[in-house]
Amino acid sequence: MKNIKEESLKLIKTRYKKMEGKFPNTIARLNKSREFEKIFRSLKKKNYPDWVIYMALINLTINYRVNTSLKDSPNKTPIDFKNLFIALMKKQETKDDLEVPLEEFIEEKIEFAISSNILSFLKGEGYVFRRATPNFKALRRLAETKFEYFKHDTPHKKWFNFEK
């Protein structure tokens, strides 16, 4: 039987490695925002580990860029969305990339991104979802109880100056 904590810590280390330094411009902008600092602190009060918040921020950034890029494409498909998302996830952010408005990083959108990340994680664990609209509360409970999704974190470089 797998040790849940060991598996979780291994996944978290991999996530940090893949995320570290990939979005310097977006992080620099968020670092200067007092409003974002309040949102970040609110999320931390809800006991989200840093990696969960960081992943949500990256996904919000990429989703905004993908949706904006494909907005005027008349024949876009889910495959187009997926391919562009993967391409942007792999690339290093540059100053030429579309700047995501700070208004996109509101608490409700970050919470939704966290829920979406849970859905993706569970799909990766082999779960299949047939409902058009997932029951995110139930999925969170499953991720928390079976996989200790929010329980663990590993030592890492902090992304924001205001983090303790």
Task: Indicate the topology.
Layout: H1 4-19, H2 24-31, H3 34-45, H4 50-70, H5 78-90, H6 107-124, H7 136-147
What would you say about this model in short?
The chain has 164 residues and is mainly alpha-helical.
Describe the structure.
With 164 residues, the protein is an all-alpha fold. Helix content is 61%, strand content 0%. The relative contact order is 0.19.
Distance between the termini: 36 Å
- Binned, the helix content reads 55-70%
| Secondary-structure element series | HHHHHHH
Strand content: under 5%
What's the overall average pLDDT, rounded?
93
Keywords:
mainly alpha, 61% helix, 164 residues, 0% strand, globular, 7 helices
